[in-house]
Amino acid sequence: MAEPLPVNPNPDPAPQPPGGEFSFMQLLPTLVFDVAMPIIAFNVLVHLGVPTLWALVAGGAFPAINNLRVWITSRRLEPLGIIVMTFLAVGTAASLISGSVFFALIKDSFLTATFGFICLGSLLGERPLMFYINRQFVAGDDPERIAWWNGLWEDLPDFRAAQRLVTAVWGIAYIVEALLRVGFAIVLTPAQVVSISPVMTFVVLIALISWTRRYLLGIRERRLRKQGLQQAS
User: What is the pLDDT of residue 4?
Assistant: First the structure.
């Protein structure tokens, strides 16, 4: 998830966003566990004669391991991580009970689409979902930073509009991705789906993070220039 760096509108000293720039090296574990390992595991197991359904289930264990790794590292249960683990567990169980390879191929689409619809549905609420997700990355559990981030929402109309637009874009992107997954499962072989689907997930995530960061930093720079012109005049 992107780590936007909004502008503090108050002239008095206030909590600042965490230092440092976002590095895509942070996504390396995701690339390994959620992209590379499911593909490798599926192809190795099928080559060894393991039934396709069981190979798919085994490959799906690696994203679960990645979520467990995050929990062990942070010692904290994040709501999004709980949702991911729940859907993985339910999807895997349903796949084994139904014995359907097709269902095993599209089970991740339910999580992806659900997240997309939650994003869009949150636009009807007081604050959109990405406002809270971005706040977690920017402010963490620091009460002063959380108050500062909430103040941006109260004081800056362009900040509110930006958070709503980001939420809408993420929601639409993940619904489209879910539909593409289902389409791939219909027209491609299981081996092709296993190779394409996790790569597509990672590419979509990278694209969304990159766009979100550029967009929010662009708003920040425009506000800085505007404040500079006002002070100069």
Answer: 40
How many helices (DSSP H) and strands (DSSP E) are in the chain?
10, 0
Asked if 33 and 69 count as a contact pair (C-beta separation under 8 A), the reply is yes
CA angle 160, 201, 85 (to 5 degrees): 85
Short-list 81, 78, 75, CA closest to 30: 81
| Residues 107-164: tens digit of each pLDDT | 878 888 988 999 999 999 999 999 988 887 777 667 888 888 888 888 888 889 999 9
Contact between residue 171 and residue 119 where contact means Cβ atoms under 8 Å apart: yes
List Cα–Cα distances, 35 to 71, 131, 194, 198, 225, in angstroms: 19, 27, 9, 5, 41
The closest alpha carbon to 180, from 113, 117, 118, belongs to 113
Closest CA relative to residue 216, chosen from 159, 169, 132, 131: 159
| Residue 113 identity (one-letter amino acid) | A
In the DSSP assignment, the letter for residue 128 is -
Beta strands in 101-230, from DSSP E residues, in sequence order:
none
Domain parsing of the chain, residue ranges: 24-232
Residue indicated by tokens 């789906």: 193
- 10, two tokens: 């108050």
What phi and psi values does residue 124 have, to the nearest 5 degrees?
-85, -10
- What pLDDT score does 85 carry? 65
- Mean pLDDT of the chain, nearest integer: 76
